Amino acid sequence: MPLATKIAWSALGVLVAIAYGLSIGGVIRKVMARIQGRIGPPVWQPFIDLGKNLFMRSATHHGVMFILGPVFRAAGGIGLFLLIPVIVGDPRFENFAFSGDLLLAMYFLFFGSLGMALGAGEGGHPHSPIGIGRGLAQMSSFELPFGLAVVAIAAQAGSFSIAEIVASQQGGVLHWNLFANPFASVAAFLAFLGMNMYAPFNIVGAPQEIPVGPPTEYNSQFLSLMMAGRAIFAVAKMVLYMDLFLGGAHSIPEAFVKTFLIYFWSVFVGAVFPRFRTEQAIRFFLGWPTAAGIAGVLLVMFR
Fold first, then answer.
1. Per-residue confidence band for 210, with pLDDT thresholds at 50, 70 and 90
2. How far is 167 from 30, CA to CA, in rounded Å?
3. What pLDDT does 38 receive?
4. Cα–Cα dist 223/201, whole Å
5. What letter would DSSP give residue 99?
6. pTM reported for the whole predicted model
7. Number of folded domains that form the chain
8. C-alpha dihedral sign at 173, 176, 182, 187
């Protein structure tokens, strides 16, 4: 496929991913409202919020890094998405998976969070360092089980190439890494709860308790960019997990079903469990998830 055509399809994929991320965010908000006995906002509310903020202006200026925070967030999500094959065997939806590997994807996975931490550091609120400390401490703790799971999966496939890891899982459901290495899968999906920062691991934002933070301090076009970045970042993570543990997808409907189930896993846990404190979350991720990750590596070593 010519490079110009590849770029055009990848750009279209980014737009579709943003729309899908906003849509699934609206659906989940409606589901959570129903669980809590509320009506909830309409499922298209994220699109309304994005369009409303896109045409607003802001006179707030705390420094260059404050402005670049949402940019880094969006860049991390877009960069991660462009390195992942969305549909197996379809060159239109393979993006630039051949240009990077799993290690580069992991850098993009945490690039957006680190950028938002630097942006919050230049915010106007004096308690920003508290939120940054909470977020980075929790992020460091769930990186360990996820990193162990990635090492186990890469060693099992004999490659850090995401495309080759997907190819190694073809041949049936039992070839998926979800079943071929259940220990690594358990570690990764428990770490996924921390990545999404739903309850019980949402102490960084602490909804209904802390009326500050990026959703409050950022407004107008900064907030719209942050919303778009959050949407594509969520979709990129779901596609990455689909490729690493669920054998990828061979069609668009299959990709929608698998990614929705992956995302709903964190929403289901968030609806059942109360919020952990920061030290409780760290102890959790350094406990059973890390042990499962180590078991996944040992399973590959002694197989």
1. low
2. 36
3. 87
4. 23
5. G
6. 0.90
7. 1
8. negative
